[in-house]
């Protein structure tokens, strides 16, 4: 479907209505660039027209049309939009009909649309608290064990390298500071986000994808609920609240496992490690780690939910959406990590100097 | 099913045979601990027996029985095994019938069994080369873009922190060495493994899970192919071959992006960075990074394939298997990273001293 994937459920809904009664006089035909992925063709009687490349504003208007419950005005309004859309464009229909943007651009666009909708609805206070608490219980307590285990091993792995090299340089006393800064600024937020992306992000994409494929999302619309309110916003809020807390726990346990390993294997006293870490750290390091985690949580949940609600093609599509959601979440985390590091840490720092 | 999940397809196969003809006089009943997850109960007429907690050796014998193609002999031999199994055990059946190991222990056991089978068949030379090349093309070239992009951003993020802190310490000239060692020993193998686990590991689990749920794995057995030869070994070999090469590429691009950022933003010359890196690095650092990557690749593919072939419960089970496979692959990568770092890097190193 060349229209944005967000509006696809609307057309399916209209098509089902039309197939039940035969009174419709619609006159619009939609050209599908991925015929094998469509579960059912949506055809209207009448002369054929091509509805190509609508502007991003259209999905909201099409979405509003849905609430009228009258499919005939819906089709009529779409027809109007099509005529209006042709006037400003100087391109010939021949060229437009041959070209179609790739599907992942539409999905990327749906990420932005979904993010905007979540922000707007959260600011309006339209939050389904029971769902949010359910999702928070999934993201938070059930992920603590895996995040802590991963953070402990990452801390020990980096301790081996830092203690090994810095001992010969005569910087024994600064090992704690280096570990504390590396953990608070980079490792804790990123490791927590990686585990949550693999565990929670793929679960979100698989769930919403299955709901989309089995038309449960359309059922929610029929029942009068907004799927963004009911399904997406609780998940986004849950990850934004849970990840900063998980990062704090991971930072604490990572430092503890580093100190234990340095003391047990390499003979560095725990007191030296802790004292050096205390002198190197500032409150901004902890605050920036939590802000980073919140941004990562938002990226994970919005990308996973957007990929879930734009799933096509049955069980195979659900698997593909899940895999793509995890990969794009991971890439988004690393890009955001660099951007936030560049913004948060300007100029030369002097915190490591305090513990030499 | 309390028997190992590896033997579950065999029983399903036997059950289908028995249901087609009604001549069988078997006398074994299997007690299932997850009734809601089984698509179909396997029952035989006759006196009921409880088949509890077989030893790990049994799956191989049960698997061998499959090749006879005679369901009656299969059931008869199972009966023998059950009687033999009771004799050495002093535990009362009442206690055994109340206790059942959790499902993830059986899946963990199937990981070890599958790993052993892959090693044995690889050493025997039973490699399906066309499938291996297909999987290698999926793991290798199609993942290069994502791995390189991720590695570039990780390199830049760590460069910000290292240059910022080391400048004030007067260790400007050692920034390249620190980055090179951090990349070659920890960051390149781990970042590559994380991206491959999210992208390839989940795809493996989803594919094999779907095949298992839709009984395509049983069809392979009917056609005389061994699913381990045809499906699992090519995937394991592909990841073991591709990950070391991906790690080399990621290390190169990570160092390049670090040098460009340090020169462009922080004024540390590229020549200083690369000269310091050259003096800090040794060939063992590169070799150990590639060995680490190969171990990570083996962990990712064996865990994902084992979770895929032990999927139960339809589309929901496929989603759960995919999510669990990614999480356990990530945890396995971090644990193996610590273990290999501890084994490979003993004692105090003096490589960083060379570049001051």
From TrEMBL, chain A:
Its main location: membrane. InterPro entries: ABC_MlaE_roteobac, Permease_MalE. Pfam families: MlaE. The keyword Transport applies. GO terms for molecular function: phospholipid transporter activity. The chain crosses the membrane at residues 241-274, 295-313, 325-345. It is found in: Membrane. GO terms for cellular component: ATP-binding cassette (ABC) transporter complex. It is a multi-pass membrane protein. Keywords: Membrane, Transmembrane, Transmembrane helix, Transport. It comes from the Eukaryota. Belongs to the MlaE permease family. PANTHER family: ABC TRANSPORTER PERMEASE PROTEIN-RELATED, PROTEIN TRIGALACTOSYLDIACYLGLYCEROL 1, CHLOROPLASTIC. NCBIfam families: MlaE family lipid ABC transporter permease subunit (TIGR00056). This is Protein TRIGALACTOSYLDIACYLGLYCEROL 1, chloroplastic isoform A.
UniProtKB/TrEMBL annotation, chain B:
The keyword Endoplasmic reticulum does not apply. The chain crosses the membrane at residues 241-274, 295-313, 325-345. One of its GO terms (molecular function) is phospholipid transporter activity. Keywords: Membrane, Transmembrane, Transmembrane helix, Transport. It is found in: Membrane. InterPro entries: ABC_MlaE_roteobac (IPR003453), Permease_MalE (IPR030802). It holds the Pfam family MlaE. One of its GO terms (biological process) is phospholipid transport. GO terms for cellular component: ATP-binding cassette (ABC) transporter complex. It is a multi-pass membrane protein. It comes from the Eukaryota. Belongs to the MlaE permease family. NCBIfam families: MlaE family lipid ABC transporter permease subunit. This is Uncharacterized protein. It comes from Glycine max. The lineage of its organism: Eukaryota, Viridiplantae, Streptophyta, Embryophyta, Tracheophyta.
């Amino acid at each position: 479907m060349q229209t944005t994937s967000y509006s696809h459920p609307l057309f399916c809904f209209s098509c089902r209505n039309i197939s039940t009664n035969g009174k419709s006089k619609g006159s619009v035909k939609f050209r599908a660039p991925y015929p094998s992925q469509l579960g059912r063709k949506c055809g209207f009687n009448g002369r054929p027209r091509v509805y190509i490349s609508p502007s991003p504003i259209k999905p909201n208007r099409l979405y509003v049309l849905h609430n009228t419950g009258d499919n005939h005005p819906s089709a009529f309004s779409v027809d109007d939009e099509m005529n209006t859309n042709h006037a400003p464009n100087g391109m010939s229909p021949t060229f437009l009909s041959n070209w179609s943007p790739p599907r992942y651009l539409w999905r990327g666009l749906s990420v932005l649309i979904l993010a905007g909708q979540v922000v707007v609805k959260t600011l309006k206070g339209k939050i389904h608290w029971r769902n949010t608490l359910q999702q928070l219980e999934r993201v938070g307590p059930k992920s603590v064990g895996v995040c802590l285990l991963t953070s402990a091993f990452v801390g020990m792995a980096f301790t081996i390298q830092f203690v090994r090299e810095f001992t010969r340089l005569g910087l024994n006393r600064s090992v704690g500071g280096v570990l504390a800064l590396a953990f608070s600024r980079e490792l804790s937020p990123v490791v927590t986000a990686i585990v949550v992306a693999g565990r929670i992000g793929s679960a979100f994409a698989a769930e919403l994808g299955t709901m989309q494929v089995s038309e449960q999302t359309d059922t929610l619309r029929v029942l009068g609920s907004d799927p963004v309110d009911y399904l997406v916003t609780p998940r986004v809020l849950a990850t934004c609240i849970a990840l900063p807390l998980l990062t704090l726990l991971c930072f604490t346990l990572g430092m503890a496992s580093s100190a234990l390993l340095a003391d047990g294997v390499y003979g560095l006293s725990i007191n030296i490690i802790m004292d050096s870490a205390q002198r190197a750290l500032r409150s901004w390091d902890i605050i920036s780690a939590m802000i980073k985690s919140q941004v990562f949580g938002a990226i994970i949940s919005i990308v996973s939910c957007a990929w879930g609600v734009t799933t096509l093609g049955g069980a195979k599509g659900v698997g593909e959406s899940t895999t793509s959601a995890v990969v794009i979440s991971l890439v988004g985390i690393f890009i955001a990590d660099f951007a936030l590091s560049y913004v948060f840490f300007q100029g030369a720092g002097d915190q490591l100097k305090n513990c030499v």
